[in-house]
Design goal:
heterodimer; A: 232 residues; alpha+beta; 2 domains; 5-stranded mixed sheet; 13% strand; B: 163 residues; Rna Polymerase Sigma Factor, Chain: A; 0% strand; globular
Chain lengths: 232, 163
């Protein structure tokens, strides 16, 4: 029988069933031309492997690995909500429309973090709101500050909602690191607003993260004066 | 949790994604740019990945689609420029025959039409079965095998001439 180029290639690629493969093998053994063609196929395979396989052993550049590491550190509000539900079986705890896009926002904000600000940190505008605005007040850019507290590491953390995203950021020596990100505050534009769903999600996440009680007004003023430094 | 499995899987795939990108892109800087764009898109669209399905095929498909999109927007001028660059590289490689040969593989690959190049890379470099490669590209198996055959023959001619 004759072996087509397709069949010979499929044989070299291990794509043939056993019976067909055995037939090709016999044909190759009895035909020097086929054997030479097969050797060429193998040779090409080897040349490609010699060119590309060493890349597998190279160290992966940080710019490729760090976005994944950052994403692993940020807990989405959506995940926090699910964890709470499964823990306490609280079906009444519901997210609003923001929840559906919460998890995608987590990363969208992260990978967008460029222009001088370390990846995974609040941008200049949000950082200004976190630095200067007290809880219960609204920053000039519309970001509302909800709560301040210290996490298990003693870092000062603040929950906020803004038009594009809500979340919790904790202060360290590089700035405000975004720890939890959630959906937008859908009711931001309503002047006399009720506590929105983004608010309750942020408050719930804050409750999970906080090592002690939330700051009262005095503690918050002191922390602000202190530059939101970490206290053991 | 699904999130952890996703991110761990992504990290584990990085070396392979870099290898695939190196074959698609024209130089190593472009390759890592392509890799980075792929990771960013995967992170943003991670909800579209279904737990239990193969993460590697999903990632390769993303990379392949980004590459096709950028390749389409490139002009002929870019291509000429790239060929010149490749020529310069060969000269600067020096006496080491092995390195010159590696560059010849790159140059031979670059002469292939995109659809043949991706077929060759997915099957011969990445080791995918025909059916898997066809699924990543989004074409019938028959189309994949004929592109692979043509690409492979063209490569053997190019590399045979150079040898």
């Amino acid at each position: 029988m004759t072996i087509s180029p397709e069949q010979l290639a499929a044989y070299a690629d291990g794509e043939l069933d056993e019976i067909t493969a055995a037939r090709v093998r016999r044909a190759v053994e009895g035909d020097p031309h086929l054997a030479s063609d097969l050797a060429q196929l193998t040779e090409l395979h080897n040349m490609l492997a010699a060119r590309f396989d060493p890349i597998l052993a190279e160290p992966v550049p940080e710019r490729l690995s760090s976005p994944i590491e950052d994403a692993a550190k940020v807990v989405s509000l959506d995940a926090a909500r699910q964890a709470r539900q499964s823990l306490w079986q609280r079906p009444q705890f519901r997210f609003g429309a923001g929840a559906a896009i919460a998890a995608s926002l987590v990363v969208a904000v992260l990978v967008g973090g460029r222009g001088g600000v370390p990846q995974g940190y609040a941008d200049t505008q949000l950082a200004a709101a976190l630095d200067g605005t007290l809880s219960g007040q609204t920053a000039p850019d519309g970001t509302r500050l909800l709560i301040s507290f210290r996490n298990g590491e003693g870092a000062a953390c603040r929950g906020y909602t803004a038009q594009t995203a809500s979340g919790i950021a904790c202060h360290d020596d590089r700035g405000w690191k975004l720890k939890v990100l959630g959906g937008a505050d859908a009711q931001q534009t309503t002047q006399y607003r009720q506590a929105g769903s983004a608010d309750s999600a942020v408050m719930a996440a804050a409750q999970d993260m906080a090592a002690g009680p939330a700051f009262d007004a005095d503690a918050e003023l002191a922390a602000r004066k202190d530059g939101w430094n970490t206290r053991p | 949790m699904q999130n952890d499995a996703f991110l761990t899987g992504l990290t584990a795939l990085l070396p392979r994604l870099r290898r695939f990108a190196a074959g698609l892109a024209r130089n190593s800087a472009d390759a890592d740019d392509l890799c980075q764009a792929t990771i960013e898109r995967a992170l943003v669209s991670r909800q579209q990945w279904q737990d239990g399905t193969r993460l590697d095929s999903w990632m390769y498909r993303i990379m392949r689609n980004i590459w096709i999109d950028t390749a389409r927007s490139r002009t002929r001028h870019d291509k000429t420029f790239a060929d010149e660059e490749a020529g310069v590289n060969v000269g600067s490689m020096g006496a080491q025959e092995a390195q010159v040969e590696l560059t010849m593989v790159d140059r031979a690959l670059q002469t292939l039409p995109d659809e043949q190049r991706e077929a060759v890379l997915l099957v011969l470099v990445e080791g995918y079965k025909y059916a898997e490669a066809a699924e990543i590209i989004g074409c019938p198996i028959g189309t994949l095998t004929s592109r692979l055959l043509r690409g492979r023959e063209a490569l053997m001619v190019k590399l045979g001439e150079a040898a």
